[in-house]
Amino acid sequence: MNIARVIVDVPTSQTNRPFDYKIPDSLIGVVAPGMRVIIPFGPRKIMGFVLEVTDQTSFTRLKKIQDVMDLTPVLTHELIQLGRWISETTLCFYVSAYQAMLPQLLKAKYEKELWLLAEHEDLTEDLERLFGGRGVVPYEEIEASSLSYSQIQKRIHEGLVEVHYKVKGKETKKKETYIVPGIPSHRLEEIYHDTPKQAKKQRLILAFFIEYPDEILQKKLLEELKTTRASLKPLLDKEILKTVYKEVYRDPYQQREYERTTPFPLTEEQQEAIEPVLASIEDKRHVPFLLHGVTGSGKTEVYLQSIQQVLDDGREAIVLVPEIALTPQMVERFKGRFGSRVAVLHSALSAGEKFDEWRKIQRKEVQVVVGARSAIFAPFENIGIIIIDEEHESSYKQEDYPRYHARDVAIERGKYHHCPVVLGSATPTLESFARAQKDVYKLLTLKKRMNNASMPEVELVDMRKELHAGNRSMFSIQLREKIEDRIQKGEQVVLFLNRRGYSTFVMCRDCGEVKECPHCDIALTYHRKAERLKCHYCSHEEPMPTICPSCESDTIRYFGTGTQKVEESLNQLIPDARIIRMDVDTTRRKGAHERLLTKFADKEADILLGTQMIAKGLDFGNVTLVGVLAADSLLHLPDFRSSEKTFQLLTQVSGRAGRHTLPGEVIVQSYTPEHYSIEMASQYDFESFYKKEMKMRKTFRYPPYYFLTLLTVSHPNHLYTMDVTQKIVQFLRDHLSDQAIILGPTPSPLTRIKDRYRYQCMIKYRNEPTLHKVMNRLFQIYEDAIQQKDLQLTIDFQPYQLM
Ligand SMILES: Nc1ncnc2c1ncn2[C@@H]1O[C@H](COP(=O)(O)OP(=O)(O)OP(=O)(O)O)[C@@H](O)[C@H]1O
Ligand SMILES: [Zn+2]
Ligand SMILES: [Zn+2]
């Protein structure tokens, strides 16, 4: 078994297959599938993933693996297969699929170095100056030197120097320093007696270790003996004491004590819902469930008790929660029940913290992982349940390459492990609900809220009427009165503002000029604190102009409603309201999110004002009023899911009110209150909405009736982009069936981002078994243009972002 099949870290079509390498004698028995190795590839040394170890190869001369990067495989047998599946279903390179499964810290980085091949005497003067007696210099030093790249190229050609790629593992395990005696106790005593009395500190330290000969944290030792490292040093130098380093985990939740919770006796509805889940756990059967439960119906308790059964059975559980719902409150519910058996993975953790949480999973020190999308790749080997909470959230779809959907990955893993997958939501996606109607997913329903609490009453306010009645503020009379009423009663209010489409743009009142980003086709957003305009796509920034760049009028102003602006007018309207504002600006600092929510929970504020961040997962008993400021801001996005998203968001936000004993009330302000998604959301009528929306989807041939594939072409040259898209459309017409509907070429809704033009083509189809093959063919045709001409082709088989 001295041959390894390796996927190399070179993401191109030609290299997207396993390469055979010889395992050198010294590494036979060490190299195993799932490990990362360092291999020669062309002139460089790069990283690769070992897929298989075998003794067969059809090649006669093989290069040798140079080194191993891991001693324990980072990919399990199952994950190796899963990566292949992801690569084939989303059309990404194998190596990209494997990278996506690993924590960021494990992604290899390369450093370029220039190596000297000749003797120093034989060097040209310029090279001698560069190397200055060294054998290796970092590549960046070339830039700083007087040498040009072409001169270096010449020297490489002459065989004087050579470029080397050094693979750098970024992973860093955090270590702590411990001190232990390096010699037996009786020797310590001898040395103690031989140490002169004046060397007080040293005698103190020796006496300490004579009494306690165990290892001790260096920091603690120094504190205890009130001394410094300087007095330790002579003892360490003489090897009387030794330093040892131990790996510690960076655990952001370590300092926290979680109050242990015990399972609630389930309600009848919960009991009915959990039984089939428990049965499939017991029978080790893969069943996909859709748990449709209104907000506050106790879905989480159903998850917790299912997980308990899995753990009792000695198996493991993965729980996915959308990033923005992964609040401290949420974490607490899982840690409260399962304590240190839980690892948490989300993007607010530092790369080091994420790596440490992942290591706990890899080492089987935890049995439950709660995390955002990428936690679906947790390297467990004995999974008993996978839960996806708020399954309708579009953040489960990765919008970067590789474009996988966590729900599909969950089902794939569920099949492998013969375990149930539970998709939970108060507002399931049309796709999932349609599958449940057809019994592809088994439907479980929770119709009632806990404590028989009723769903909060929703009042729709027509903002057009407010305007006609002379109210120019962003608060309707009703909303304002109700806020004042709650403040008086000592109850709390949640105010929701949709972030997207409602950022603050800058417009000239004279000529109507809107300030746009010079690199992207979108309006710049005004940031008050810095008095600057920023682009949210490319992070271009510029100062707020004082006069209009187009007509030189000084009436240039910002428009639109950001959370800051709402806060300001709220302050004017109700001066004694205590407001907590939660948005990207106030939660940027680590732990800020949590601090603000704790403040609100402790009733240090009357109003929680925020964006999407506050729409999910919050469970505060004292909240009796929810206000939605602009319900229709999502409705007008160029996206066939905009009605569905509006319905989901309104239902979720409304669900924050009246969750415990106090009854709740919701005010929804809108310019189009008659729209069916707003109206039906206000009546919590999911089924009617489902029926109505399904009709629309059928008429306009959208999912779940049709599959969609979005192909985006981008390039800095406008004409070239159009031309390539046109050719691709023609190619697709020639190669797909007559049933496929091919739309395009059309400019993408965002036609230019970061100085690149974007055109797209949409394919709607019901059954195209050759689609993946045809797409692969396209990539081959354009391979050279992609590699050399800066062309980008993106294929999304399940597009959610249509921008
Ligand atoms: N069987 C039970 N007995 C008593 N209280 C319960 C029970 N199950 C859940 N609860 C409590 O009811 C409240 C609502 O439950 P939970 O948050 O699990 O609902 P949910 O359906 O997950 O809500 P959402 O979708 O809005 O997040 C919580 O405070 C929870 O602790
Ligand atoms: Zn921009
Ligand atoms: Zn102007």
Keywords:
33% helix; 803 residues; globular; binds adenosine-5'-triphosphate; 6 domains; 33 strands; binds zinc ion; 23% strand; ATP binding; zinc ion binding; single chain; GIY-YIG endonuclease
Structure description:
It is a single chain. The protein is built from 24 helices and 33 strands. It is of the alpha/beta class and 803 residues long. The strands form 8 sheets. A 7-stranded parallel sheet has the order 14-15-13-16-17-12-18, with helices on both faces. Strands 19-29-28-20-27-26 form a 6-stranded parallel sheet, with helices on both faces. It has a 5-stranded antiparallel sheet with strand order 2-1-4-3-5. The mean pLDDT is 87. Strand 14 (342-345), helix 13 and strand 15 form a beta-alpha-beta unit. Helices cover 33% and strands 23% of the residues. It folds into 6 domains: 3-108, 3-Layer(aba) Sandwich (GIY-YIG endonuclease); 110-168, no CATH class; 183-239, no CATH class; 268-452, P-loop containing nucleotide triphosphate hydrolases (Rossmann fold); 457-502 and 561-697, P-loop containing nucleotide triphosphate hydrolases (Rossmann fold); 707-796, Alpha-Beta Plaits, CATH 3.30.70.360. The relative contact order is 0.07. The longest helix is centred in the C-terminal third of the chain and has 18 residues, at 718-735. Helix 1 crosses helix 2, helix 6 (185-194) packs antiparallel against helix 7 (200-211) and helix 10 (268-282) runs parallel beside helix 11 (299-312). One zinc ion (ZN) binds next to loops. Component of the replication restart primosome. It catalyses: ATP + H2O = ADP + phosphate + H(+); Couples ATP hydrolysis with the unwinding of duplex DNA by translocating in the 3'-5' direction. Keywords: ATP-binding, DNA replication, DNA-binding, Helicase, Hydrolase, Isomerase, Metal-binding, Nucleotide-binding, Primosome, Zinc.
